[in-house]
Design goal:
Blueprint (H helix, E strand, L loop, with lengths): L1 E2 L3 E13 L2 E10 L13 H5 L14 E8 L5 E14 H6 L5 H6 L8 E12 L4 H17 L5 H10 L1 E2 L24 E2 L9 H7 E4 L7 E4 L12 H9 L1 H12 L3 E6 L2 H14 L8 E3 L16 E6 L12 E5 L4 E3 L13 H13 L20 H19 L7 E5 L5 E4 L1 H8 L5 H8 L1 H10 L3 E2 L3 H8 L1 H7 L3 H19 L15 H5 L12 H17 L10 E2 L6 H8 L7 H15 L3 H14 L3 H13 L6 E3 L1 H16 L9 H9 L2 E6 L2 E4 L13 H23 L6 E3 L5 E3 L2 H11 L5 H30 L45 H26 L4 H30 L20 E11 L18 E8 L2 E8 L9 E6 L3 E10 L6 E9 L3 E7 L5 H15 L8 H4 L18 H18 L47 H13 L2 H6 L17 E4 L15 E4 L4 H7 L10 E5 L6 E5 L6 H5 L12 H18 L2 H5 L11 H10 L4 H12 L30 H5 L50 E6 L14 E6 L4 H15 ...
Parallel strand pairs: 11-13, 11-14, 12-13, 20-21, 35-38, 36-37, 36-38
Antiparallel strand pairs: 1-7, 2-3, 2-6, 4-5, 5-6, 8-9, 9-10, 14-15, 16-17, 18-19, 21-22, 23-24, 25-26, 25-31, 26-27, 27-28, 29-30, 30-31, 32-33, 34-35, 39-40, 41-42, 41-47, 42-43, 43-44, 45-46, 46-47
């Protein structure tokens, strides 16, 4: 029984303590005045009566009622029901009132005054019970008695209220006499049992119903709940859901369970209380144990800053003061919102629970939702009444908790039964069996305070049970079956709701409330009523004393509590297995594990070794690990299993592998089952010395986790205590029969329940005995565990203090104790210095930390399980001795283990090195760990090549791993992974646990920008200082001090790695260079760039004194080669001539001459029609350091102007011409962006008046002139008289141009739309590509168009090509692709159609950010296209992400970490798309006759990319080997792309990071190559080769930032290859030439170019492909880009194969593995294969093998002849006829034509889906294009004549026509002089010597002896014979001079 009300309090406004209008409340009276013993009076009630503060108001307010909750120091809740009404005060009286006169105010007569104030007064009932309605009625009655002046004294009513006693949860009948009134006259009974009309059984009725009356003619029923464990919620839960909605309440629910701070806001106090009560009700069976204040007074708002979780309600009045709270979730009940701060993360329920809960809740709250779409919805689908709905919602949450906690009782450990049960929850096992270890929500709930309370409250096995216990134990099966069907779930919910409702309202029919309310008149009258009187405390106290005395005399109420054994429900394993949540391992894997263990114990070691890798892979699965522990258990006899060394080794490896994947929680109990086994398996090391398995499996997190040891300890204690009681009981009780009649073992909880039931019946002695037995059982286990822990925590070699490397085992719970143990065989024992001299001190450190750890453990478990203090002290003294004893044992074991023979490790394989490459550090034994790529690990099929064991080698050039796979079955393969040191981008330390071992190894992760990743773990034999030294060396090689320290410079040099930079003296030769530049340029320019470039060593010392007058312009530009200009000036020394010629050659002059942009001429007279000239203004690199020495500028611009113009541009990179369109004569210019200050002035109108002509203005005018000069140099401009007006155009011209351009029209329109956006586009918005790609591409603002052009109806762009396909002819040498018309003086086509309107003569592609504020040229002669350019930082970051996408460092299953997602995130394809899109636009503009100036950033990154791509797309020459080389040399090297800086090649540029601008360009070329495979002479491999060596630093080509830097270092004109070391190539181009002559690796057999074909690739992201260069890997012999390595490896392989050939039958089959073999090598394409076969046959027959190129050309020629004879197109074998051509295309169509016959078919291919395998018939030989820019044949024949040549073995001497070609650097021979097809070629680069020979057998007769001479090459000896000796001498001299020139 409990009192309904503990205290009654009257609280009023304190008139004495008013401070500036801020009033205070004070308690006027309280009853009883003495505190109850069991319930002290709560403090601070007056604050809670007026939470918003005590204030006087001018108008009387309505009476209010709410319930506040106060929590006392013992966490007991007091419910304070506050009834507040307002009493009038006079304002004059307020002034009069002083201290002590408060009573006078009450007796003042009621006078109506105008200035009236009202003060609040509160009647408060304080109770431990929460009966809101009853309190509302009682307080309302007291107020009514006072207001209406009823006859009943207030003291009687209050006395009756305070003496009313009701049952807490049902009660028993009390025979009470009536309570007396003041004059002791008995009145009607105040407390009486109700005789309900239902007349139930007496017991039931008494338990749940109580009728009370307070003696004022009132009567009300209080229904007490049947079971008080279930919360009473009324309708508060339903209200909460109505106010906030399902999702919001679920957020609050999860937040409360995971201990967040929750604040409710509302303007209603009662709603705040109800909301808090509702939230607590849905948390049942968990109880909230933190701060709980449903109504918080305004004065206590600082409580909200508390660090602990809370649920608090605050009036909305204080909303502004809650805004600063950063970690509080705010629920606004009035607005229906929940605000979660950014820093708060709420873990939500695990799926599918969350979804199912939401569904069930919406079915309760909105049943119509389900049927709202039905044509005939059910008639009545209204939701239940609010009170019923409330219970249904609570039932959903009960059902939710039953699912969350199902099977929890199987994870309870009972560690003491007597005197009180002590129970612990095994969290890891619970989560493991539910497969929810990763679930954040459940983890937090189980760690929380609420769950701890749940375990202590519901853990005991023998207690009263409630609805939840029944649900979680007996209805699990039902819940599981119904969870998928919402309707069945609803039925269950309704049943539960019914029980909840019945518990709260046992008799819903009984509702006899008779409570008087104040009359309407008393409420409405505004006159001041009499104030609430002072009550007679004596009278009230009499009532209370009378009731207390009566209670004492009556017999005590004993409610028999119904205790029973709590059911546990089905075991967890059953539930989970049925759900199929367990990761099932296939039976085959388990069989492998079992077989392997059997082989080990049967000593069949070879069989076991074969199975081992498969077993280690299988042990990743949980079932296999469980299987292993079970199998090993069977081999343990009497706690011991002695093994031999090899068996021990294998068992330990398997244990380590099993433990490696265990988390520190050990949720599957694997470590727990292994714990007894590691102390059982052992091996004998010597006399009386045994090594146990535990010394080899210590390196795992789980052993250092305190929670693991506690769970293990409790589990063992439970088993022992269970055994203790099993023995004492009779044998019959041991087993119980379950329902099906099977016998099952009794569980520990059931046993404990039985013991608890019997406990009261036992005698005192028996009870004491049992307590002692249990306590000593726990104590003995504690000793046992102290031993066990010392086994697993003390390292084998205690002198090595590596345990304390982490923050100290004794201090932190989850440290990793990584110590070196000599686990498996002591092979590393000698690598550490054991003679340290500090052994004792260090080992004692280890001992101390282990002792501390064990002490902490013992303290915790012994305190929890009630071990006596004496025993605990004994344990503390024992532990150090146990540890010390164990250390001594280990020392002996360690000594013996050193004597074991080391394990046989694989032999280290030596790598093949390049010529000049030297080892810096010899091989260190390492393991190569798999990264995030699956191919090599065997997971995608194929053999598991990784992990592999081998060695890592550091050379001057590369980092090489070479080894063999760890898997024995793949062990014959050799795994090689290597990358150039210069390409290393990131190095980080990692720690790796190998599957075999227990050690955590030191490791490194090395990432390279050649898309290679090396994750290595150093073997235990590698000392850590050696690993550190490796890192330092690596860093030193990666970032040398100066570029001369890179491999390209140090190759072949022994000794010092890094050279000091040269001194300045060497660089003075620059003057000499400039002086002689002009004179000698003429000689060089006449030489054509064909074949190999001749470079001569620069002899800087021979300085010429010749002064040339450089101020006079001696360079003129002419389109015909001036014959007189070819004479050499004799005043220049030959050495200087050579140097000068190199400069001029280097300065791109060959290309300028080819393009007709200018030659160097001696004539001072200049023809006026030459638009451009070569300027030497930059000869000393004074104008611009990063430009070449010779530049093309307009004819009429003097050099002095250039010095002024260049200042406007960044880095002084002013606009220069770099290419001219052969047909339209439009030019392509490049420059840097403008300096910010020059932007506006640059675009100022030339007519704008300026006040003072400042320098800036003059510069601006110079720029105007410069651009105007460029425009006026264009033929189209000069022909239209320089004015772009419409008057010059006749309608005929217009019509013809329009009609001829219909085909071209849409192309440019689309392009401009893509790049510029539509007219409607807002400037600066992103334009969408035509295919609607995610085109974050080029955001462009709309260019302004002048009014004239805008209004013109002919504003569309036409084509320059007339109807008869005009081609501009240029008489320049070698322009083979041109037509045959005669040229105009200005180089334009001689056709009137050319006169046509153009939009602008010059387009400037500029950076959008740079061009703000510029005015458009009023004459529309140039126009600016602003584009948003990609920054180098973007490229750098994008490339980093691309590397991580292509080569991830670890495997992941997250969907947002997939390859395609990461590729998209990298935005690499978007960047390619941008560059290609701009390039295609420029190509179109040039093709329509407008010149274009690309003026972006500093002019050396994006500008270079765009300019190079434009030339590649527009000019077929650049798609040949020579052309591409020239393009790269001209645009990238000469024009100063910063290779060293962007490649971070030295220490200085390390911080800037690797930015692959050139690689991006190569990727763009690759994309174009994919779309036009027949247009490129080189193959994709050529591009990959360049990409690799661009990053490798093997060649000097891509080093340094400009020609200036190269000249300064003396590397620009050095010897092409070192005579001393002919294998070492310094230039990548020479290397490619050399390789290309030997084998067709770089050649594209599909090469079949179209004349003047302009390529227009698709640029949308969907058309771009990921370059396979980023994804390929060849593990057999590393990257396939260093050919010497390949040839050496092949020859080695052949030698070994010959040795191994023992006559056994050899299989012809060769298995090709994708990531292992080089596919192009093992499966070459058909043509390469045939060429190889041909060479092999020739070698066998002893013939001189012909060069592959000649063979190829011959085949094509013969094929052409056949075609001619057949006179119909035949399918040529020279073009690969595979269907992979189906998606290739030409932009205008594919021609099938026979040039001889003249028949041609045109296939229009407008879309990508062209017909499959389009065959192309024979066309002119490729070789014509291959050497298309040669001069005439005669020029290439330096010396020729007849020589006799001796044939191969047994062949006669034959006369042949020999031609010495110095240009191509070869000696060719033909059958006769007229023969066009050469029979053979002798490479002069291969010639080693020319010596006088002797006649041999079969030599020509009648020839003198001196006419014979021998030519020795690296391959063979040629015997030659001239017709006479003088002739022979001439030949020898000529050949010799060619060799020295080379």
């Amino acid at each position: 029984m409990a009192r309904l009300a503990n205290y009654f309090v009257v609280v009023g406004y304190d008139l004495d303590n008013r401070v500036e209008g801020e009033g205070q409340g004070r308690i006027l009276q309280r009853f009883p005045e003495k505190d109850w013993e069991d319930s002290p009076f709560p403090q601070g009630i007056e604050l809670f009566c007026q939470p918003s503060g005590w204030q006087l108001v001018p108008e009387r307010q309505a009476a209010s009622f709410f319930v506040a909750v106060l929590t006392d120091i013992n966490s007991e809740r007091h419910y304070c029901a506050c009834f507040t009404f307002w009493e009038g005060l006079d304002s004059p009286q307020l002034k009069k009132v002083d201290a002590g006169d408060a009573d006078e105010a009450d007796e003042e007569p009621a006078v109506v005054q105008h200035s009236k104030l009202f003060a609040p007064k509160s009647l408060v009932v304080v109770s431990r019970l929460d009966y809101t309605e009853a309190f509302r009625n009682c307080l309302g009655l007291i107020y009514t008695v006072h207001v209406d002046g009823l006859s009943t004294p207030l003291e009687t009513v209050i006395g009756n209220l305070l003496t009313c006693v009701i049952p807490v949860a049902g009660g028993s009948q009390i025979d009470e006499s009536p309570v007396c009134s003041l004059d002791k006259v008995p009145q009607s009974p105040a407390c009486d049992w109700l005789l309900a009309c239902l007349q139930p059984g007496p017991e039931e009725r008494e338990d749940s119903l109580r009728t009370i009356t307070l003696g004022a003619g009132d009567r009300q029923v209080i229904q007490t709940p049947i079971n008080d464990a279930l919360p009473v919620s009324g309708s508060s839960v339903a209200q909460l859901f109505r106010q906030l909605g399902i999702v919001n309440v679920l957020y609050l629910f999860c937040a409360a369970l995971t201990e967040h701070k929750i604040l409710f806001l509302s303007s209603s106090y009662q709603r705040l209380t109800d909301a808090c009560r509702g939230l607590l009700a849905i948390m049942f069976p968990l109880k909230y144990s933190f701060t709980y204040v449903p109504i918080l007074p305004g004065k206590l708002l600082e409580v909200l800053s508390t660090p602990t979780p809370f649920i608090i309600g605050v009036n909305s009045f204080f909303r502004s003061e809650t805004q600063e709270l950063l970690d509080v979730i705010i629920a606004d009940l009035d607005g229906g919102t929940v605000t979660i701060p950014e820093c708060v993360h709420i873990s939500l329920l695990p799926e599918p629970l969350l979804q199912q809960t939401q569904t069930a809740l919406s079915m309760v709250l909105d049943p119509e939702l389900e049927f709202s779409d039905q044509a005939f919805p059910p008639q009545s689908m209204n939701p239940s009444a609010l009170k019923i709905q409330d219970k249904e919602i609570r039932a959903v949450f009960l059902w939710l908790f039953a699912r969350l906690f199902q099977g929890y009782r199987w994870c309870l450990h009972i560690i003491r039964i007597h005197p009180e049960p002590v129970i612990r929850f095994h969290k890891a096992a619970f989560l493991g069996q539910r497969s929810l270890t990763e679930d954040d929500f459940l983890m937090k709930v189980l760690d929380g305070m609420a769950f701890a309370g749940f375990v202590s409250e519901r853990g005991p096995p023998y207690r009263a049970t409630d609805l939840f216990d029944d649900l979680v134990a007996n209805q699990v099966e039902r819940i599981r079956q119904e969870e998928a069907c919402p309707h069945k779930v609803m039925n269950h919910v309704k049943e539960l709701a019914e029980q909840l409702f019945k518990n709260e309202n046992p008799y819903p029919a009984v509702a006899m409330h008779k409570v008087q309310r104040p009359s309407e008149t008393s409420q409405s009258t505004d006159q001041s009523r009499t104030p609430f009187p002072v009550l007679d405390d004596v009278a009230v106290q009499l009532f209370i004393d009378h009731a207390v005395a009566k209670l004492k005399s009556s017999p005590p109420v004993v409610k028999a509590e119904l205790k029973s054994m709590v059911p546990s429900g089905p075991p967890l394993g059953d539930i989970v297995d049925r759900n199929g949540n367990v990761m099932a391992n296939s039976a085959r894997r388990l069989e492998v594990v079992r077989n392997c263990i059997t082989y080990i114990f049967d000593n069949k070691m070879l069989e076991a070794k074969k199975l081992m890798p498969a077993v280690l892979r299988a042990l990743k699965g949980r079932t296999a690990r469980v299987c292993l522990t079970q199998e090993l258990n069977q081999h343990v006899l009497q706690n011991r299993a002695v093994l031999d060394d090899q068996q021990f080794d294998y068992i330990v490896r398997m244990m380590n592998c099993t433990l490696q994947d265990c988390s520190h929680m050990d949720e599957h109990g694997i470590a727990a089952t292994l714990l007894p086994l590691v102390t059982a398996f052992c091996r004998k090391l010597g006399a009386g010395i045994t090594q146990f398995a535990y010394s080899c499996v210590q390196e795992h997190m789980v052993w250092t986790t305190m929670q693991f040891w506690e769970a293990m300890f409790y589990s063992d204690v439970q088993n022992h205590i269970k055994a203790l009681y099993m023995e004492t009981d009779d044998g019959n009780q041991q087993d119980q029969q379950d329902g099906s009649g099977n016998r099952r073992e009794i569980s520990a909880l059931e046993l404990a329940a039985e013991q608890n039931r019997l406990w009261p019946t036992l005698s005192k002695e028996m009870q004491t005995e049992r307590v002692q037995k249990e306590e000593s059982t726990v104590f003995s286990q504690a000793i046992h565990y102290a031993n066990r822990m010392s086994y697993l925590l003390l390292p084998l070699d205690t002198s090595k203090n590596r345990l304390l490397r982490s923050s100290g085992l004794g201090d932190v719970e989850s440290v990793s104790n990584s110590y070196v143990t000599n686990s498996i065989a002591g092979s590393m024992a000698e690598s550490y210095d054991t003679e340290s001299g500090f052994e004792d001190a260090e080992s004692s450190d280890v001992a101390n930390s282990v002792v501390r750890f064990i002490n902490r453990f013992v303290d915790k478990v012994c305190n929890e399980s009630g071990v006596t203090n004496e025993h605990l002290k004994a344990l503390h003294t024992m532990i150090p001795d146990i540890v010390q004893m164990h250390i001594e044992t280990l020392d002996a074991v360690h000594r013996e283990s050193k004597r074991l023979p080391p394990i046989q490790k694989p032999k280290l394989l030596r790598p093949t090195l390049l010529p000049g490459e030297e080892l810096v550090m010899d091989g260190m034994r390492v393991h190569l760990i798999p990264d995030g790529r699956d191919e090599a690990t065997g997971q995608m099929g194929g053999p598991p090549l990784l992990p592999a064991e081998g060695a890592i080698f550091l050379t001057t050039y590369r980092l090489i791993f070479k080894g063999t796979p760890s898997d024995a079955l793949v062990g014959e393969q050799i795994v090689t992974r290597s990358f150039p040191i210069a390409s290393l981008t990131k190095e980080k330390r990692i720690s790796v646990t190998l599957t075999m071992d227990q050690f955590v190894q030191e490791g490194l992760q090395l990432r390279s920008c050649t898309f290679q990743l090396m994750k290595i773990a150093f073997d235990e034999e590698v000392a850590s200082d050696l690993a550190e030294s490796f890192r330092k060396h690596l860093h030193k090689l990666r970032f040398p001090q100066h570029v001369q320290g890179t491999f390209a410079f140090t190759v072949g040099q022994t000794g010092k790695l890094v050279l000091e930079p040269k001194t300045k003296d060497k660089n003075q030769s620059l003057k000499t260079l400039s002086k002689n530049l002009v004179k000698n340029a003429k000689r060089t320019i006449s030489r054509q760039y064909v074949g190999r470039k001749k470079e001569v060593p620069a002899t800087w010392e021979n300085r010429s004194n010749f002064q040339s007058e450089l101020d006079e312009d001696e360079i003129s530009v002419s389109e015909e080669v001036d014959q007189s200009a070819l004479t050499l000036s004799s005043t220049i020394r030959s050495s200087d001539r050579q140097t000068m010629s190199n400069v001029v050659e280097r300065a791109c002059c060959r290309d300028y001459q080819r393009l007709g942009l200018g030659t160097l001429s001696n004539s001072l007279t200049r023809s006026k029609n030459e638009p451009f000239r070569i300027s030497t203004a930059n000869r000393m690199y004074t104008v611009c350091r990063s430009y070449p020495g010779l530049l093309i500028i307009p004819q009429n611009i003097p050099d002095s102007t250039i010095h002024r113009i260049c200042r406007c541009y960044r880095q002084n990179r002013f606009p220069v011409v770099c290419w001219r369109h052969s047909r339209t004569k439009a030019v392509l210019l490049r420059s840097a962006g403008l300096h910010a200050k020059g932007v506006v002035s640059f675009f100022k109108s030339p007519n704008a008046p300026t006040a003072v002509p400042s320098q800036a203005d003059s510069t601006s005018l110079e720029q105007e002139k410069y651009l105007q000069a460029i425009i006026s140099s264009m033929p189209s401009y000069s022909e239209s008289t320089g004015r772009n007006t419409l008057s010059g155009f006749t309608s005929t011209h217009m019509n013809t141009s329009e009609s001829s351009d219909k085909l071209r029209q849409p192309k440019i329109g689309d392009l401009m739309k893509q790049v510029l956006g539509n007219k409607e586009d807002v400037p600066g918005t992103f334009s969408r590509g035509a295919l609607g790609q995610k085109a974050k591409v080029i955001s462009l603002s709309q260019p302004k168009v002048s009014g004239k052009a805008r209004n013109s109806p002919r504003g569309k762009w036409g084509s320059i090509r007339g109807s008869g396909r005009l081609s501009a002819y240029n008489p320049d040498i070698g322009t083979r692709l041109a037509g045959k018309e005669s040229p105009q003086p200005n180089g334009g086509p001689n056709d009137p159609l050319f006169l046509r309107q153009q939009k602008a003569y010059l387009y400037i592609i500029g950076d959008k950010a740079q061009l703000k504020g510029g005015k458009q040229d009023s004459f529309q002669q140039w126009e600016v296209i602003p584009i948003e350019v990609c920054d180098v930082r973007q490229v750098k970051n994008s490339f980093k992400k691309l590397m991580k996408a292509c080569v991830p460092s670890s495997q992941t299953t997250e969907p947002n970490m997939s390859f395609l997602r990461l590729l998209e995130d990298s935005e690499w394809m978007t960047l390619l798309h941008r560059v290609l899109q701009v390039s295609v636009l420029v190509v179109e503009l040039l093709d329509t006759g407008s010149s274009v100036m690309v003026s972006l950033e500093d002019g050396w990154d994006v500008t270079t990319q765009v300019v190079s791509l434009v030339q590649l797309l527009s000019d077929p020459y650049y798609r040949t080997f020579d052309g591409f080389r020239l393009l790269v040399e001209k645009e990238w090297l000469s024009f100063g792309h910063r290779f060293s800086h962007r490649g971070a090649q030295t220490l200085g540029s390390q911080s800037s990071g690797f930015t692959p601008v050139f690689l991006q360009f190569l990727d763009c070329v690759h994309q174009i190559h994919l779309q036009f495979p027949m247009e490129f002479e080189f193959s994709q491999y050529y591009l990959k080769f360049l990409a690799y060596h661009y990053m490798s630093n093997r060649f000097r080509t891509f080093l340094l930032d400009s020609d200036y830097d190269r000249i300064e270092l003396g590397v620009l004109y050095e010897e092409k290859s070192d005579r001393r070391n002919p294998q070492v190539c310094k230039s990548v181009w020479d290397y490619i030439d050399r390789l290309n002559k030997k084998a067709p690796v770089f050649y594209n057999y599909m090469y079949s170019p179209e004349d003047e074909e302009v390529l227009r690739p698709y640029t949308f992201i969907s058309n771009l492909k990921v370059w396979d260069f980023y994804l390929e890997e060849t593990l057999s012999d590393g990257p396939p880009y260093d050919w010497e390595l390949r040839s050496r490896q092949e020859s080695l392989a052949e030698e070994t194969a010959e040795k191994a050939d023992t006559g056994a039958p050899k299989s012809q089959r060769h298995i090709v593995w994708p990531c292992y073999d080089n596919l192009s090598k093992v499966m070459p394409d058909a043509i390469t294969k045939l060429l190889q076969d041909l060479q092999n046959l020739e070698a066998e027959l002893g013939q001189t093998s012909e060069k592959w190129k000649d063979t190829w050309d011959k085949i094509k020629t013969t094929q052409r002849t056949e075609t001619k004879l057949e006179s119909k197109p035949s399918f040529s074998s020279s073009l690969l006829m595979s269907s992979n051509l189906s998606h290739q295309r030409r932009s205008q169509g594919v021609c099938l034509q026979d040039s001889r016959v003249g028949s041609s078919i045109k296939l229009g291919l407008d879309c990508e889906a062209s017909a499959t395998s389009t065959p192309v018939a024979g066309r002119p030989s490729t070789s014509t294009l291959y050497s298309q820019f040669q001069s005439t044949e005669s020029e290439n024949r330096s010396f020729e004549g007849i020589l006799y040549k001796r044939g191969a073995l047994l062949k006669p001497w034959k006369p042949r026509w020999f031609v010495l070609d110095k240009t191509k650097h070869e000696l060719r021979y033909y059958d006769s002089r007229q023969d066009k097809d050469c029979k053979g070629v002798i490479e002069l680069s291969d010639v080693e010597s020319v010596t006088v020979g002797t006649p041999t057998m079969g030599a020509p007769k009648n020839v003198e002896e001196k006419a014979f001479f021998d030519l020795k090459t690296s391959k063979r000896m040629y015997n030659l014979c001239a017709q006479e000796s003088s002739n022979a001498q001439l030949w020898m001299d000529s050949i010799q001079s060619s060799l020295s020139d080379a």
